[in-house]
Design brief:
Blueprint lengths: L3 E4 L6 E4 L4 H15 L2 E5 L3 H13 L3 E5 L2 H10 L4 E5 L7 H10 L6 E5 L4 H9 L4 E4 L4 H13 L13 E3 L4 E4 L2 E4 L2 H11 L5 E3 H8 L8 H18 L5 E4 L3 E4 L1
Helix pairs in contact: 3-4, 4-7, 7-8, 7-9
Length: 256
């Protein structure tokens, strides 16, 4: 019996099956195409809103992975990053901006759309400083969210981040995690360290660290940032992390 082939939607996808095995073809095609679907993560604690967004994304062909917890989002999406993430800022267990920074520190480069009820300029800027790519205020039109998500997924993918460091960050507890050690951080220390870990190996300018550490736009003196860096160095040593926080004089700091 001579084989025949059918090309299904997708670049270079060809399925060859024996004549008469149409059912096998469709099982294989459905399985393969499901694996090609763009994966959208959702972290939103409002059950009704989370399901609304989930249903809308699924109707647009996304495979959706939802959660309502910031801590669970870091665990879930660090292990298996989505292609795009819709992230609420006002989570009950963590600030969504801290969740985003923890994911960036873990090497997750997926674009992030923040959802929040706060629409003041400092709030929006703090979302971008935390590693977000877009910002949508509540209440919002689901159609607008879909357009924004689709626009982000059409962009050229960013190179995976460097997650080779020996420690993780817990946005719920504001802590360094290193093997069996957990060392608490203040919220400001957490944000500064997350900004450095998210760009591991790069010199992060002082202005960027100030923007990350003090997202509400506070006036910060140079020696204040230096003091926080010193405290972070001590806590990294306390956690047993081998990572070195280096000074680029007059420019900023680098986590190596």
């Amino acid at each position: 019996m001579s084989p025949w082939s059918v090309r299904v939607v997708g670049p270079g996808l060809t399925f060859t099956v024996p004549r008469g095995s149409v059912s096998s073809l469709w099982v294989l095609a459905r399985s393969t195409l499901a694996g090609m679907r763009t994966v959208a993560g959702i972290c939103e604690d409002d059950d009704a809103l989370r399901e609304l967004v989930r249903d809308a994304l699924e109707r647009e062909g996304f495979a959706v992975r939802p959660t309502g917890s910031g801590g669970e989002a870091v665990r879930m999406f660090s292990a298996d990053p989505p292609d795009v993430l819709v992230l609420d800022i006002g989570l009950p267990d963590a600030d969504g901006r801290d969740v985003c920074q923890a994911l960036r520190a873990a090497g997750v480069t997926a674009p992030v759309v923040f959802l929040t009820a706060r629409d003041a300029l400092p709030d929006r800027l703090s979302g971008f400083h935390a590693g977000g790519d877009d910002y949508l205020t509540k209440p919002f039109a689901v159609a607008e969210l879909l357009v924004r998500v689709q626009a982000l997924t059409r962009r050229a993918p960013r190179a995976p981040g460097d997650a080779s460091g020996a420690f993780g960050l817990d946005p719920s507890a504001h802590a360094i995690l290193c093997e069996d050690r957990r060392v608490p951080l203040t919220p400001t220390e957490f944000r500064i360290l997350a900004a450095l870990a998210g760009r591991r190996g790069e010199v992060v300018r002082r202005s960027a660290l100030v923007a990350a550490g003090w997202p509400d736009g506070a006036l910060v003196h140079d020696n204040t940032l230096d003091s926080y860096i010193g405290r972070i160095r001590r806590k990294l040593r306390e956690a047993g992390a081998p990572d070195e926080l280096q000074t680029a004089r007059g420019v900023g700091y680098r986590l190596a």
